[in-house]
Amino acid sequence: MDVHGRIREILAETIREELAPDQQQLSTEDLIKALKRRGIIDDVMKELNFVTDNVDQELPSSPKQPVCFTDRQSTLLKKTNIDPTRRYLYLQVLGGKAFLEHLQEPEPLPGQACSTFTLCLHFRNQRFRSKPVPCACEPDFHDGFLLEVHRENLGDGTRMADSTTMLSISDPVHMVLIKTDIFAETTLVASYFLEWRSVLGSENGVTNLTVELMGVGTESKVSVGILNIKLEMYPPLNQTLSQEVVNTQLALERQKTAEKERLFLVYAKQWWREYLQIRPSHNSRLVKIFAQDENGINRPVCSYVKPLRAGRLLDTPRQAARFVNVLGYERAPVIGGGGKQEQWCTLLAFLCRNKGDCEDHANLLCSLLLGYGLEAFVCVGTKAKGVPHAWVMTCGTDGTVTFWDSLTGHRYLHKPINPDEPPAAEQPKPLYPYRTIGCVFNHQTFLGNCQPSDSVETCVFDLNDESKWKPMNEEAVKSVCAPGATTSLPPFPPLCASTIDASVTSNEIEMQLRLLVSEHRKDLGLTTVWEDQLSYLLSPALASYEFERTTSISAGNEEFQDAIRRAVPDGHTFKGFPIHFVYRNARRAFATCLRSPFCEEIICCRGDQDSLYTQSCCLQGERVFLLFQSGCLLLIFSFICLIALAATPSTVLNRSGEGGHPCLVHDLRGSHLFFYY
């Protein structure tokens, strides 16, 4: 509604019209009357819905949705849950300045695509996102976020939290700034932890802050810009604390955290010395005890993992693996050469950017599998050619060890090779791409591999055998990695349902692809005719592909083949090129397809009556939700001059075609095209 802007305009108009020359100021009552006359207060009250339900009646697993004031044009909020018995922190972002990297950025013309900034927030299990604003030296941020402070485990649920109670809440407001370019590529600009409790010692419970945002990775010591922030408590505090009390509390918390981190560092050094005494060659193994986050701060690796429940967004562990798999993979950027840049992102930064390195994927997948009750660990080791890598391992109650590749979603059973067996003895052949393993860890456990060889093939994953795995003391790990153990530990955000309408987005992508194909064929002097009925028949194939990716089970292929047999006219061939993308840029997807000679042959086919069929599907509907982006499957089909069928990747049709003629099977990157002559 842009309430602030409308109020400012009306008050300015009222002062000009009604302020007599002999009057110095208008009273509050006069201003309220002016707002009422113009209907502003009525409009605001229509937008608010005060909830008076008893909080104790709500189930713990379904908390109230947090409130976020957003642009009505982008999101229509049917109901705003504001409980007058709760305490809220109203955080306003009142613009930015000194984003010097965009000093020469020209002001975008109306309707012109431009790079944008988006501010993402997380506070006490609530997540918010600002409206995108054009990148500029002084970005025009003007958003307000209503953060519920009195949320959980604060005593009597019907009593409003007072200043003393809120002073004990050490959770910061995590702010992540994301840049999105005109090609929808995202970049992590800054990650900042805002200490909000200074407002408890401010007069009237209102304070203004200037927050300097620092860069990430190698630029973590360089300022990228400044945000002007206003904090306000709602309802207003009856009694504010002195600033001295607030500062003393914050200093005590920092001192306690520093002491815990110092003691853990001393213990980690001692553990490492003992580990090297077992075998000097251990010095070359990838035993990762600490890792740098996006702000360049060293944190224990166990603090990057925590049991995470996805609610009804992801139903099974394999769905969780599929969800993590479609998040983009991108190594941390490095200036110049010198190898890989060290950067393990916090979960909020990873989710908001929607892409990250293999460690980020492994940490998220391990957290989700722990939430499903599995005994999961992150493994740190190498792949082929000694490339550092991270993946996930689960240990079953029957001793089964399963590797989960967080980048591909593939699962591998591990059966160790016995090096003492005679050469003629049959040994299991490993299918996984991993070569060595240095350590495994989760939120409570850290284990270093102390077996004679760190080869994954010969490794025995009996984690209770201290002669094979040297453990860290669990109490020492919990002292710095347990939730709430230290104030420097970033809280884990919840997963949120996608904001994308899958059906609408699918139709838009399909229309864009049709236009691109038609233009491409027109440049070649070819005409294009679209057949909607056959395009619709391709939907089961898309669903089957995604189902197989998620469950490793193929289903529904028989019905699809039967429908295609009936739809394809005699004397024609049905060819298909299935391909999967993790972005929604139709032009980029089309360019990728053209790089394949198989797809180019289909798109550029010639005939008396050429017809092309497309079907795109954003797999993000009722069962699979992807964060701020959806994985898409695209199928492009054409008619040429023979009869053919397309089958799913796991289907193998080992028989002759119709009439006893031979059948040619062509393998295309995991997919099979079956041509019947």
Overall mean pLDDT stands at 80
- Helix content class: 25-40%
Name the beta content range.
15-25%
Number of helices: 15
- Radius of gyration using CA atoms only: 29 Å
Strand order of the largest sheet: 20-19-18-17-21-22-23
- Measure the end-to-end span: 64 Å
Extended strand count: 30
List low-confidence stretches. 51-78, 615-677
- Return the structural class: alpha+beta
Large-scale geometry: globular
How is the biggest beta sheet arranged? 7 strands, antiparallel
What this model shows, in words?
By secondary structure, the chain is an alpha+beta fold. It is built from 15 helices and 30 strands. The strands form 8 sheets. The chain has a 7-stranded antiparallel β-sheet with strand order 20-19-18-17-21-22-23, with helices on one face. It has a 5-stranded antiparallel β-sheet with strand order 2-8-4-12-11, with no helix packed on it. A hairpin with a 5-residue loop joins β17 and β18. The protein is globular. Its main location: cytoplasm.
Per-chain topology:
Elements: H1 3-18, H2 28-37, H3 40-47, E1 49-50, E2 67-69, E3 81-82, E4 88-97, E5 116-123, E6 126-129, E7 133-134, E8 142-148, H4 163-167, E9 173-180, E10 186-194, E11 206-214, E12 223-234, H5 243-278, E13 290-292, E14 298-300, H6 317-326, E15 328-329, H7 347-353, E16 355-356, H8 358-371, E17 376-382, E18 388-395, E19 401-404, E20 411-413, E21 436-441, E22 446-449, E23 469-471, H9 474-481, H10 502-523, E24 529-530, H11 532-537, H12 539-551, H13 557-567, E25 573-581, H14 586-594, H15 597-603, E26 611-618, E27 632-640, E28 643-647, E29 663-668, E30 671-676
